[in-house]
Structure formats: C-alpha cells, structure tokens
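Supplementary Methods. Inverse-folding protocol.

Structures were first reduced to a discrete structure-token string of length 146. This string, shown here, constituted the complete conditioning input.
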C-alpha cells in the first residue's frame, strides 16, 4: 500500500538529492570537498532509504510466510519507519538543495518546483502506534516480533 509507494518516492528523492550536488561537482571538482555537509546529508538520505526499503521488504516477506495477523507488530514497525524516514529524506534533500544553491534563489526555486512534483504525504497516527508497540514489548524478555 502506501508504504510501497513511499519507498519508491524516497528513492526518487534520493536520486534527486544526489544529482543536484553532482551537477555542481561536475562543473567544480572541489565542490563537494569544500562543502562536506552535503556528503553527510547525502549519506543520511541513503541510510534512511536503505532502512525503509529493508524494513519493508523484510516485513512483506514475513507477512507472506507467517500471515498478516502474526506479522502485525512488524507491520506496525515498518509503517512507522517508512513514515518517519520519508519525512526525513524529504527534509534532508531540501537541505541539500538549499545548500547546493549557495544563496541562488532562482536555482533553489527551480529545485523546489521539482521537489513539489515528487512530494508524497499521508497521515499516520504514530503516537498511538508507538504506544501500542511499547505495551506489546514492555514486559518481554525476548524481543521477537510475534
């Protein structure tokens, strides 16, 4: 459902977030060396995409093998991970674009328009879900997902 779409959108954002500074680096080979913060942001984006993608794939496999009822905790965790990572990826890519623009409002506006076409958003009650997960795991000595 939404999580599959969200991970696909995250991949697009990551590609865009890498592409914008890569174009600057092609024109100025020292650009990334002189702007190390961009490398950290790119690394954060890639780790978030990997975490969301990995969580989703593992949960889909678990649900297929054990059924949705037995996988409900993993499904809830994945929904939270994907939801929160999507927001973080979008914010970090916005930061990448803002920093890459180096104060050029026209360049940033162009990138902002491109980002607005990729935006995907939905509501998820993470507070309730996290409370339910906490209650499920609170008194356990073994943290399995069943």
């Amino acid at each position: 459902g939404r999580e599959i779409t969200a991970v696909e959108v995250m991949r697009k954002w990551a590609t865009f977030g890498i592409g914008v500074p890569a174009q600057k680096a092609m024109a100025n080979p020292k650009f990334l060396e002189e702007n190390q913060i961009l490398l950290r942001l790119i690394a954060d984006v890639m780790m978030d995409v990997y975490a969301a993608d990995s969580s989703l794939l593992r949960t889909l496999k678990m649900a297929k093998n054990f059924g949705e009822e037995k996988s409900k905790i993993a499904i809830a965790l994945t929904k939270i991970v994907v939801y929160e990572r999507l927001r973080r990826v979008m914010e970090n890519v916005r930061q990448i674009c803002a920093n890459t623009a180096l104060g050029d409002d026209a360049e940033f506006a162009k990138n902002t328009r491109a980002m607005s076409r990729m935006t995907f958003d939905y509501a998820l009650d993470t507070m309730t879900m996290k409370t339910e997960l906490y209650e499920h795991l609170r008194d356990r000595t073994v943290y399995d997902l069943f």
